[in-house]
Automatic annotation (TrEMBL):
Belongs to the D-isomer specific 2-hydroxyacid dehydrogenase family. Catalyzes the reversible oxidation of 3-phospho-D-glycerate to 3-phosphonooxypyruvate, the first step of the phosphorylated L-serine biosynthesis pathway. Also catalyzes the reversible oxidation of 2-hydroxyglutarate to 2-oxoglutarate. Residues 408-478 form the ACT domain. It catalyses: (2R)-3-phosphoglycerate + NAD(+) = 3-phosphooxypyruvate + NADH + H(+); (R)-2-hydroxyglutarate + NAD(+) = 2-oxoglutarate + NADH + H(+). The keyword Cell division does not apply. One of its GO terms (biological process) is L-serine biosynthetic process. This is 2-oxoglutarate reductase. Keywords: Amino-acid biosynthesis, NAD, Oxidoreductase, Phosphoprotein, Serine biosynthesis. It is an enzyme of class 1 (oxidoreductase). Pathway: Amino-acid biosynthesis; L-serine biosynthesis; L-serine from 3-phospho-D-glycerate: step 1/3. Residues 12-22, 37-48 have a biased composition (Polar residues). Residues 1-22, 37-59 are annotated as: Disordered. Gene3D superfamilies: 3.30.70.260, NAD(P)-binding Rossmann-like Domain (3.40.50.720).
Amino acid sequence: MPSAARDIPERNGNNNTGADISRTVSNSFGTLDNLSTSPTATFHSPASSYGGLRNPSTKQLKPFHTEDIKVLLLENVNKTGQEILRKQGYQVEALKSSLPEDQLIEKIRDVHVIGIRSKTQLKASVLKHAKNLIVIGCFCIGTNQVDLKYAAENGICVFNSPFSNSRSVAEQMIGTIIVLARQIGDRSNELHRGEWNKVSAGCWEVRGKTLGIVGYGHVGSQLSVLAEAMGMKVIYYDVVNLMSMGTSAQVHSLDELLQQADFVTLHVPELPETMDMISTHQFEQMKQGSYLLNASRGSVVDIPALIEASKAGKLAGAALDVYPNEPGGNGQHFNNDLNSFTEDLRNLKNVVLTPHIGGSTEEAQSAIGVEVADSLVNYVNLGTTSGAVNMPEVKLRSLTLDEPNHLRVVYIHKNVPGVLRRVNEILGDHNVDKQMTDSRGDVAYLMADISNVNTSEIKTLYQSLEDLGSRIRTRVLY
Ligand SMILES: NC(=O)c1ccc[n+]([C@@H]2O[C@H](COP(=O)([O-])OP(=O)(O)OC[C@H]3O[C@@H](n4cnc5c(N)ncnc54)[C@H](O)[C@@H]3O)[C@@H](O)[C@H]2O)c1
Ligand SMILES: O=C(O)[C@H](O)COP(=O)(O)O
């Protein structure tokens, strides 16, 4: 038997301390009779994950049977991600679409891990029912669908995939710019209806035209490089001063960009400041016969104002990949019940409408599946928060099989004075081998590896930390 499991009592044996704490995976493990004894349950061979889970001498920190971890994956999370989670032994339920709020609330009560994409709204009204939830994986870039602050304040860590689909979005935008410039969407629709309509009026090369990129982050900067390769001139507007790719140039204001660009493309996150960022005033600033593309979030463009600008001939074309309200899954209708302007939008000339597929390529989805699932496994098994979007990033070197009586304490707490002193008083009876603590806003995350801990002491230690007023969540891994 690996030495680390030596002191752990039989799962259903007589070593129960009699402690009256119900067992929850999320808060670590109250009663000692629930602690895992099986070497196979405690020392799994790792999945594809990186970091500490790869080294064979690395101790797998699982004070629970992995099959007790319940994972709910919504919105057709890629098989790569599902596989990694299943290989850990977790119970994984994977659904193809998002869920209406009432069904989501029912399901979320029970799970320790949830994986979503851009549709599923995890606001406080839903999260307050998620009593066992320790971590959320956004298998996408955007995290605007999650109440990040509420999650952090309730000890729920959130991960995403910051750039694995950026290239896919940039390539879709390049394709769409040419489709708009040549009115290819309309020509194709006509021919599908049996109408031959060979025209050149209002159709242009993109070479020499100016592309205005709003938001020069991962997507915007990739797009910049691709557009220059096609001979376009690139200008961009961003709230941050950024290094220009190639010969592109940053402009000082959104209006300046709108007045100069032939094509305007939006790549900003959903924020209060970006809500209706392009509305009537901005369409007025744009050049006559210019084009607008939006693959960021539906709330960034005032779509009724876009419809007016298109009908008035100000816009020669537009492309939308995102909408204020989107269907929950495939096969559902895209009509006025969803957004009151939908019929008007569908009837416009040279307007390309796509169902939020900017990041939907095999390459992107497969990479996102691996990246986010790895983050989830490292968080559940090791407490590592590297890459978290709502918690400080904390990571400790992994414990090894040579460190038998060690345990790892994860203590998420309110960021108030005096907590460290009190925590260290509790840990102080043991040797603290390593410790890291960091804070982000009102929440702090402490991780410590301590040695020479007898099994009988684990519960007391856990309970002492739980009893501190500053506690948000305690996890003890060993
Ligand atoms: N359609 C899709 O499938 C798809 C795929 C990926 C991302 N997205 C959306 O695109 C957005 C951008 O993605 P990204 O990876 O490039 O994000 P990013 O965070 O790398 O870049 C966003 C850029 O916008 C800038 N910005 C923020 N507020 C701004 C403002 N008010 N005005 C101007 N610039 C501002 C930021 O400084 C940053 O440089 C995401 O937040 C996501 O919502 C959509
Ligand atoms: O935020 C993102 O990465 C994109 O909007 C893609 O979202 P999706 O995974 O729901 O397609």
